[in-house]
């Protein structure tokens, strides 16, 4: 996972600086963004792929009747055939069923971690950006500490020391290491929204801090967080697979793309059996790619300078 | 400039101690929950209790607070900081000093990082510039599509696929044609100590691939933005040739965020080398962490993680200070 925010740049401060209601249309940022996305083929296609992958995770039985746990070692790593469309895995299980069922842990972790990280990041970002002063200093310095750990190294060390590896521990570790960037982005976004005239006006009319935050600050500074969260979904899918591949993520009775690739890696090289890697890698790459494209399209639509 | 530097240096101190404390606290919690790591070392054949106690004492794991869950063991932390300050990062379970292990591993990781940085900077900036000056043309679309693809492939997947491709197909093909030894070493599956640079080229390219995509995108966006600036229009209006407008006027300013990213990447890559070194069997720092995690040698893991984090923090500090030199706006916030 990497620092996507570098690319968000100063423009990521969202609609606060946008020329409200450009020339012909003044439907507001979200309606404009939605109209643009609706006509963007890249967005539509990647959204469809994401929905398909989510349906695999939620209802794997819709996609296959084969039990992924029914494995026969005699049939290990056979190439694609009528019985097994994608061939069989190293353990002799059906590769297609493993590709389908492998979506589940990745999607659960990605959605769970992204949701919690976004909530924590938004809340802390608002508090530290809006109130400033000591609250800001303390939150920002603690944030620096967590951002100071290289991501994969930190996650590896955390999981290795916890000595307990399941969907939940992987999620907790990714949350602990992942909230910093969103907090930082939200803080910057809130600071620039705070100095806008409409906030002054609301304050002059006697609005309380809570209502200013809720009605003016959050809606006007959330856009970069939404873009980053979409990109994060892809990053966390990739991070889960990486940690699992390294042996500190999910463990063998579970089914995960990372495990399938790690198993296949050892055999595929020596036995020249590309299907062991091609299918799980393709599923993983396609999923991450769709999230990245989705995030890109969202950013372009929400960034008024691109128009 | 002076005030900014002082403030940035002052901020560095709590972060430094905070990060080291975080790693320390993690280790104490792990010991408090999972018990003495020394017992895990021996598995089923436990030595007599006296021996165990002696070994435990030697690794300073006999502290009372390691039996009280939740206790942050501040006394141990202070001792540890003192040790670190004297350059003592402890020993592994075979009593080799961690600093000696690192001295062997670090040059390899540094070479890997250098190859990755050179590759990603040169190819990334060139691709970004081409895409930026030909916005929405064929070259731009090609760069955009390929960089999105590169960013979407997790490093370990790329590593596994490249290893098979280069190790099996290209490697065999080269050997059949009697290519020189350094060339076959370049495409071998694993690290070879006789070819310290050549056999790191492919892993370095894999390591730098993600950032390459990122740098290209960053350069492109930044250049497009700068090309809209008034001073670029002025330069064009004066009738300067396009190469000069782009090369001298636009590129210099639009490379500021790119340079920053490359600087930060030094730290990222040291962490990311973990995956690449694991796949290509490279005995670098990442390989060291990897082995220690497998063997349950928490002291080594913590010491190496602390050192890598220090590199990362110092790199960010240098980048921030450098950024203030490049972009005066930063200093006057």
Layout of secondary structure:
The complex is a heterodimer of chains A (307) and B (333).
Chain A: H1 5-8, H2 29-38, H3 41-58, H4 60-63, H5 95-101, H6 103-131, H7 133-147, H8 151-162, H9 167-194, H10 197-204, H11 209-221, H12 223-246, H13 257-271, H14 275-302
Helix pairs in contact in A: 2-14, 3-6, 3-14, 5-14, 6-7, 6-9, 6-12, 7-9, 8-9, 9-11, 9-12, 10-11, 12-13, 12-14, 13-14
Chain B: H1 2-34, H2 37-42, H3 49-58, H4 74-85, H5 98-133, H6 138-152, H7 155-176, H8 181-186, H9 201-227, H10 230-237, H11 242-254, H12 256-279, H13 285-295, H14 298-326
Helix pairs in contact in B: 1-14, 5-6, 5-9, 5-12, 5-13, 6-9, 7-9, 7-12, 9-11, 9-12, 10-11, 12-13, 12-14, 13-14
What does this structure look like?
Chain A is an all-alpha fold and 307 residues long. Chain A has one domain: Orthogonal Bundle (MetI-like fold). Helices cover 70% and strands 0% of the residues of chain A. Chain A is built from 14 helices and no strands. Chain A has helices spanning 5-8, 29-38, 41-58, 60-63, 95-101, 103-131, 133-147, 151-162, 167-194, 197-204, 209-221, 223-246, 257-271, 275-302. The longest helix of chain A has 29 residues, at 103-131. Chain A is elongated, with a radius of gyration of 22 Å. Chain B has 333 residues and is mainly alpha-helical. Chain B starts with a helix and ends in a 7-residue tail after the last helix. The model of chain B has no long low-confidence stretch (mean pLDDT 81). At the A-B interface, helix 7, helix 8, helix 12, helix 13 and helix 14 of A face helix 1, helix 6, helix 7, helix 9 and helix 12 of B.
Radius of gyration of chain B over all CA atoms, rounded: 25 Å
The string of secondary-structure elements of chain A, in order, is: HHHHHHHHHHHHHH
Total domain count of chain A = 1
Q: What profile does the largest beta sheet of chain B have?
A: none
Number of DSSP strand runs of chain B: 0
Distance between the termini of chain A: 29 Å
The poorly predicted ranges of chain B are: none
> What is the makeup of the main sheet of chain A?
none
> What is the mean pLDDT of chain B?
81
Summing up helix and strand content along with how strands pair, one would put the structural category of chain A as: mainly alpha
